[in-house]
Predict the 3D structure of the following.
Amino acid sequence: MATPCRDDQLICLKKDLTEAIDTLPKSIAGKSTEKLENVESTLERWISNIRGKPGQGDYWVYHLEDSSKRKDLSDGLAADDLARLRYLQGLESKHQFNVFGAQVQKKVIGTRRAAIDHRAEECPGSEAEDEDEDEDEADAEPDTGEDNVCEINWTIQVTFGINGGRKTNILDLNPDNILQDDCFKGYKPDEDNVSDDDYDEPAHPDECTYIQYYRSLVSFGYSLIAWISDG
């Protein structure tokens, strides 16, 4: 388990790595030596931080926002994302890490209650009671339904080669290693389906179980130091 001090270091490294990678395209185009050196020094701090300490922080995932909705790397990357990936790949041997293109998937399983308009329901009773209920129901808002998230699973599939090519098996992903935290915040799901028979039916008759999938292209950096230590 990571100590509080180590957690603070990882939070700072995530922030610094994100900012350094964000600035890469403009730095390369403008040949900003200072900013490019900052990228390398940040990578060195990352490697130094995890040397001999395999665990959280061994790898990082950077959301390729401009290319996020492309199916895979064979579709081509946006110019800025391509510049980021190629520059980082040029630093692999010097700083003992590997960087690949990959696809991240977030799978959300939950229950959804159907919207119900209680104002449309008929309630038998006296005329006076009916008049009072009519006034109350006129002021009431319909139940618009709500989602209750039960489970979230993150996975990643790494692609070897900038133009697609061989893919790994689908691997579990720790979302804490995504540099931009929840990279799907504010995004609509790529798929939103009612569940099949693999999941139990909700207890409430107005509920159904849903499964949402969010997918995006990312760059995936893995420390060779940690890889060797794990082996």
About this structure: The chain has a mean pLDDT of 75.
